[in-house]
Amino acid sequence: MARIAVVGAGHVGLVTAACFAHLGHSVTCLDVDHDRIALLQQGVSPIHEPGLDDLLRQGVERGLIAFRADYPQALDVEFAFVAVGTPPSAGGSADLRAVREAVASLLRCLPPRAVIVNKATVPIGTADLVEQLAARMNATSIAVVSNPEFLQEGTAIDNFLRPDRVILGSRDEDAVERTARLFESLGAPIMRVDTRSAEMVKYAANAFLATKISFMNEIATICEQMGADAQLVAKGIGADDRIGPRFLGAGLGWGGSCLPKDTQSLAHLAAAHGAHPQLLRAVMQVNQDQRRLVVSKVRSALGDLERRRVLVLGAAFKPGTDDTRFSPAIELAQLLQSEGAEVLVFDPVVTADRIQALAPGVRAVASVEEGAQGAEAIILATEWPEFRELPFAALAAGMRRALLVDGRNYLDPARLAEAGFEYRCVGRPSQEVFASFDFEPSVVAGSIG
Ligand code: UDX
């Protein structure tokens, strides 16, 4: 059993703390946000993550997790995981103030030979910076290890406990071996690299995922023009195990707390160091275009959006979370508003107050039925499973115009048509495209697998 501190009670920090306690380690979770710590001390998790509440409760019951809002004089731990936020600053680089503050506070209270493990996504070179800070504060026995996290919101506990790989970057071999022992029981390959490569793996992984989605979105746009079906194409290419089937879902594009921030931050880092990150820039551009593409589908059906009532289904950046950071759904609502539409938003988890704070002027509604009444279009922006089971015929009957634009290719077109909806989605040809070719759609619209 190791003694571990986790600094930062956000998504990554809490999942890390809960999982280490689950593995039997003794964990102190520290955050300077007093309200957040007070909630945790009362047994309430400030974030929505399946399975996290149970693990935190079990950890507390077993006496393996404690929460605190201040740094003690002496913090008797062997490892201190830094999982504080690194939000984008105005220029696009990552804001490292929280990391610097956390590290400086840790250096004042950690015992000799403790290991600072960086889990926050930090620019390449940050581990070196931490080492310099340690040297400046005469804490040279403190080792620094970079251990990027690859947690996905909604499946973070599983991602932590069953990782594809664990990356450990350090100059200090002994610190790497000690840190590796924390992860050995997970049975995943442990890759030991230098710190800069470890830091880069995180950025490159997220940038690659963003690229994969933007690539598929670009292919989807071409599919629409050419009379091909992007979903069948994704299946077809995804069956090649050099490509793989995941992250090929076309639609509104990517959002969330990591992909946008990290892709932008990597492009910024690259440009600042004289590289020309043209692919990364195109990947971001395609992503912005996806929001506009979905708006244009509504506009082309309705003529214009001025004073048209449009219901947006979803506010979270993806299902299974209440996180709205860089949410495509919110950006979509804002774009609709900028064209004069009356925008209503429904999300099963994100609160009305939050929605209205993020997009002032939109109306957060309490149910899909309430929002659909009298609307001229519904746009599905976040693929919450409950949206598959809506009473579509009743919704269509209450709308001024029963148009549904599926921004996630999530719903069953045949079911929607049967319910009386005019259905549009992303990357599948419209009937007009088929009409311009010299063959019957049914001849070509087969299915793969
Ligand atoms: C991501 C990375 O997956 C994870 O490894 C990293 O640690 C943090 O960032 P997360 O932000 O939880 O995780 O979201 P993810 O599930 O990757 O989805 C990101 C965005 O891409 C979402 O907006 C999602 O809707 C979108 N997406 C995903 C698509 O548009 N199409 C797809 O096929 C998959």
Helix content: 40-55%
Q: Which stretches of 5+ consecutive residues score pLDDT under 50?
A: 441-446
Number of helices: 18
Average pLDDT rating: 94
Give me the side-by-side strand order of the main sheet: 3-2-1-4-5-6
- Kindly, what is the distance between the CA atoms of the first and last residues, rounded to a whole number of angstroms? 48 Å
Strand composition percent: 5-15%
Bound compounds, each kind once, are: uridine-5'-diphosphate-xylopyranose
The main β sheet shows up as: 6 strands, parallel
Q: Indicate the overall shape.
A: globular
Tell me the structural class.
alpha/beta
Oligomer: single chain
Q: Could you tell me the radius of gyration in angstroms?
A: 24 Å
- Number of E strands: 14
Task: Give an overview of the whole structure.
The chain has 18 helices and 14 strands. With 449 residues, the chain is of the alpha/beta class. The strands form three sheets. The chain has a six-stranded parallel beta sheet, with helices on both faces. Strands 11-10-9-12-13-14 form a six-stranded parallel beta sheet. Helix 5 (126-136) links the parallel strand 5 and strand 6. Bound molecules: uridine-5'-diphosphate-xylopyranose. Uridine-5'-diphosphate-xylopyranose (UDX) binds next to helix 8.
Question: What attributes characterize this protein structure?
Answer:
449 residues; alpha/beta; 6-stranded parallel sheet; 44% helix; 13% strand; globular; binds uridine-5'-diphosphate-xylopyranose
Quick overview of this protein structure:
The chain has 449 residues and is of the alpha/beta class. The chain has helices spanning 11-22, 34-41, 52-61, 97-109, 126-136, 156-161, 173-183, 195-226, 230-238, 259-272, 278-302, 328-338, 352-358, 368-372, 392-398, 413-418, 431-436, 441-444; strands at residues 3-7, 26-30, 65-68, 79-82, 115-118, 143-146, 166-169, 190-193, 309-313, 342-346, 363-364, 377-380, 403-406, 422-425. Helix 10 crosses helix 11 (278-302).
